[in-house]
Amino acid sequence: MPVHRPRKSGLALVLATAFATSACVSSADNGSQQTTNQTIPVLNWALPDAPASLDYAKSYDNNSTGAIMSLVTEPLERVSSAGGFTPVLATSVKQPNATTLVYTLRSGVKFSDGAALTAQDVAWSIGHFSASTAQTSALGQDVTSADVTGPLEVTVHLGAAVPTARAGIDLTTLVEEAKYAKAHAATLGNSGTAPIGTGPYEVASETSSTVTLVRNPQYARTKPAPNKVVFTVIADDNARQLALRSGSIDGGPVTDLRAGAEWQAISGATVYPAQSLAEDFVSLDTSQAPFNDVHVRRAIAYSVDRTGIANAAFGSFATPLTGIIPAGELAGVAGSESAAAAFLAGLPKYSLNEAAAKAELAKSAYPHGFSATIQYVSDQPWEELAAESIQQNLKPLGVTITLKSVTSEQWYAQFFQHELTGINLPFEFAAGYPDPASLLGKLVGTANIGAQKLDMANWSTAAVDQAQAVVAVAGSNAARWQAAKTILSAVADQVPYIPLFTEDEVYAVRKGFAVTGSQLTQFNLSNGDWIFLVKATA
Asked: Which pLDDT belongs to residue 8?
């Protein structure tokens, strides 16, 4: 069935940060974009949705909670897209062995209430964000303990030699004042009990539609340009575009990527698109019939018009996937991104093919069809389009699909509690670090089935379990690459997941503002350096 363009709707949310490169696109009269160091009295920034909580452990969402709280509560280090580390609250990190990390902390740092940052605060925060009940534990840090081992030293012990543990801790731990957090444990992150941090801002007020930050009077390091940051929730992309045109917001995300040209046409505005490794795909719950039948899964794969959906939903702002994860996430163990890409290109592919779909279904236990539900996220502009397309393409096979709309908040709640069933459309999943342990090693395997874990397809095999155990821990690149290939080949053959595409990240700022470095990504939003990139123009 051909894919038609859907109506404008919704917004984009992400689970994990993404590595990206980008180039800015200015409107015709935006000039040379020379920035200044002048103070910005108020920066009005749009949020695509209201944060479920201001405690990142309870709301692991970079576009809302992360964007706000990374300016209030700081990471130990910032992780770059190339895998480098920049000190923030930790001045150095040592790894005496494969399962131990030793953090030396910056001295003289104070929380916004005047209390000194201590090793106890950091140890408590690491434990808080890596606890099994925390959404942030989904990144798989595998922390077994975080202990105070000196006045400004914290030692972290890991349950296994996780190659991405340091990055995982840095990406998820936004250090909070432990005394305050423990005193408000039941309500931490709710309105009126935002975590206290050491960042350049503190929370001044919060409503269901706005969060206002003001400068932290105790912050003594390099200060960002805005004196105040006001976050306003504008869920609809078109409404956000109109707000930028009117000047009621100064910047925010572009979430309906079909409208990129309209954003670029705003007088004086600058649009910043970034190629991303964040991926969208289809997941099938293999623990339940009929999806426990591989022929059913292959029939569904042959009924997905991936190219048509991508073109209609994203235009030029998406890239088809050749495997369940992009080559860039495999480059470290494969030897190069080109070597990884060559392997992915050789995997079995399932392009739209009704005859092949019917042939696969004829081999299944359901040759005359079945009934199922596709759950799609209403906040994601592409998902309803994809769900309707798959629904129509499966009709000739005798398959009846019921569509169910949920919000991103509802979807995340189901995901983190491991309650997703049927057919789902996971969106913008990405590695927190360029290593297969970050995502590939978590999407499959018996060890990754359960609450706060990522194997939503409930799928594995004995060979995949064995390979997953190799991918998930530090070791030789050759062995880990061979294990990764085993997993990738099995996923392509058994189809618990159907790869779709990676979609670009796009942000826009109005006339009078610019983003230094010509890029803004989820990476910047989650680690707090985005506010240092936003400048006034001359």
From this structure: 30
Q: What is the pLDDT of residues 30-87, one digit of tens each?
A: 445 789 999 999 999 999 889 999 999 999 888 899 999 999 999 999 987 667 899 9
Provide DSSP, 120-184. HHHHHHHHHHHSTTSGGGGG---EEEEEEEETTEEEEEESS--TTHHHHHHHH-----HHHHHHT
> What φ, ψ does residue 124 adopt, rounded to 5°?
-65, -45
What is d(CA 71, CA 526) in angstroms, rounded to the nearest whole number?
9
Residue holding tokens 């042939």? 359
Query: What are residue 526's phi and psi, to 5 degrees?
Result: -80, -25
- The SS3 of residue 283 is strand
- Which residue is it, tokens 């809302």? 64
Query: CA–CA separation, 202 vs 217, rounded Å?
Result: 9
Per the CB < 8 A criterion, the answer to whether 318 and 501 are in contact is yes
Tokens of 161: 């030699």
How far is 72 from 75, CA to CA, in rounded Å? 10
The confidence score (pLDDT) of residue 140 equals 62
Rounded CA-CA distance 124/384 in Å is: 41
What CA–CA distance (Å, rounded) separates 83 from 518?
19
Output the six-digit token pair for 507.
Answer: 């942000």
CB 42 within 8 A of CB 454: no
Percent of the chain's residues with pLDDT above 70: 93
Long-range contacts of 176-180 (CB under 8 A, 24+ apart): 176/55, 176/73, 176/121, 176/124, 176/125, 176/128, 177/111, 177/113, 177/115, 177/121, 178/120, 178/121, 178/124, 178/125, 179/115, 180/113
Can you count the helices (H) and strands (E) in the chain? 18, 23
Residue 189 three-state SS: coil
Calpha distance 135→452 (Å, rounded): 6
Q: Is 256 helix (H, G, I), strand (E, B) or coil?
A: coil
Q: Is the dihedral of CA 211, 122, 223, 19 positive or negative?
A: negative
What is the C-alpha to C-alpha distance for residues 244 and 88, in angstroms, rounded to an integer? Answer: 32
The DSSP symbol for 522 reads H
Cβ(150)–Cβ(105) below 8 Å? no
* Residue 222 CB contacts under 8 Å (≥ 6 apart), including other chains: 532
Cα–Cα distance list, 371 to 297, 374, 423 (Å): 14, 10, 11
Q: Which of 120, 394, 434, 132 is nearest to 284 (CA)?
A: 394
Task: Calculate the CA dihedral of residues 133, 136, 141, 145 and round it to 10 degrees.
Answer: -50
- Whether the bond between 436 and the residue before it is cis, its omega within 30 degrees of 0, is no
DSSP 223: P
Task: Report the alpha-carbon distance of residue 295 to residue 81 in Å, rounded.
Answer: 39
**Is residue 399 within 8 Å of residue 372, measured between CB atoms?**
yes
